[in-house]
Amino acid sequence: MEGHSERSDRPPSPTGEAGGGPSPEQGLARRWWALIAICGGTFMLLVDVTIVQVALPTIQHELHASFTDLQWVIDAYALTLSALILTSGTLADRIGRKRVFTGGVAFFALASLLCGLSGSATVLILGRGLQGIGGAAMFATSLALIAQEFQARERGSAIAVWGATVGGAVAIGPLIGGALTDALGWQWIFFVNLPVGAATIAISLTRMVNVRDPDAERLDWAGLITFSGALFLFIFGLLRGTDEGWRSPLILSVLGGAALLLCTFVAVELRQRRPMFDLSLFRNRAFCGVSLATFAIGAGMFAMFPYITLYLQNALDYSPLQGGLRLLPATALTFIVPLATRRLTGKISPGLLLGAGLGLTALGLAAMHGLSAGSHWTALLAGLLLTGVGIGLANPAIAHIALGVVPPERSGMASGIGNTFRIGGLATGVAALGAVFQHRLETSLPANLGAPVSRLAQTVASGGTRAATALTHGHAGVIEASLRSFTTALNEILVIGAVLAFIGAIAAVVLVRARDFHAARTA
Fold first, then answer.
1. What stretches of 191-287 adopt beta strand conformation (E)?
2. What is the pLDDT of residues 172-209, one digit of tens each?
3. pLDDT at residue 15 is higher than 70
4. pTM value?
5. How far is residue 115's CA from residue 123's CA, in Å, rounded to a whole number?
6. Mean pLDDT to the nearest integer, 264-292
7. What is the DSSP string of 143-204?
8. How confident is the prediction for the chain on average, in pLDDT?
9. Is 154 buried (19+), middle (13-18) or exposed (0-12) by CB count in 10 A?
10. How far is the first Cα of the chain from the last one, in angstroms, to the nearest whole number?
11. What would you measure as the largest C-alpha separation in the chain, in angstroms?
């Protein structure tokens, strides 16, 4: 293929030593062992999104965390993850994907240890941010490692396995999180990463080839600083806007600074010969389509899970494990569907497949709308089933399109950009939906419940109706009023999530075309 100029270190022998080339059978075995390591790292970094969500109410109770603290527990991880994926992809192209991936696993495991040992919300948030640094290195290299190891039909099978791993992480996360939180304490949702990380590193060092792009240049520090700064200020403004006031000097300054840094980032990248974010890709319709769709599924669906979890545990009073079990209809399908539909990848347009996935996700979110104070968890069931199928269809399609729009030597960058939109959407969605959620609580709670409305809204959002009862000293009607306000707020953000997913579906169907793929141009 034209333009392919990758260079690899000497491949390991079947025993893991550098040197003589393996036979075709041994090479195939080595590649699948490498895939196990890639999926192990991907599983670990993604399960720490859903596994933490189930433990949020317990963390809030034991660490006395506020609603904003709980948002930061999710967003500190998503923020550093999304901010550093692009740089990690560029670094992987320069020094080798195996080295960046393995280093990321080790850093992630150590940060997980810090999270488990934290005794305050502040330390936990710091540990989550550090986890995101390691997670960025793993996420940025996962698809690039698959691209370097597998070709043709093998690649399709490998991506299907990877997509099932993504779905499996979503599927099993709530169950593992609920079981560990109930049995051993929330700290063990982080400690479990240590043995998984050790096994992943061992396989990576002995079965993975280090491939790099010899034409890669030095790190784009100006791009890193401006992009990370813009994203941090934007998320910070969304998280603090309700508390500080959206027209306050602080929030206006923060959001204005985010816009300024974003403009600076664009100017910096346009002047780079080999930027970490190749803005020329936006000339490619398929790239624009998959980017919008990936952001939409992150902001519209994955960002919704924390609030559904809070509803199950804080409003309906389920335990962490019971809440995780009730998410199983959606999460199990995100694992099963990619495996069951892997043969559709070559038969149906990737844009149509991605659009169908997001369309079903939008329908699922809309089906969950209409909750009331008297609703049971089964009111969520139809929507959970639809979103599970939708996510299961969308995840592999996103991977195929992201790898297809660039030449193979730039697959590290493509993987990084795609995952930046996914995790950036999650971070933005958690913050934005949280702002709408909290504002709706503050405007819908009656002012005569015996406590300041803003404080009561924070209490209901993070601690549920029991915490609100304690705050108001058993004021008559507080449980019913709080639950009614909670479901009203949740209904509102479900509509927003459905609209975002629908916009992503339209973008995928209209913009993603097969002729815009790199393979089609160079064939």
1. 211-212
2. 777 888 888 888 888 999 998 999 899 999 988 887 77
3. no
4. 0.76
5. 7
6. 81
7. HHHHHHH--HHHHHHHHHHHHHHHHHHHHHHHHHHHHHHHHT-TTHHHHTHHHHHHHHHHHH
8. 79
9. middle
10. 8
11. 78
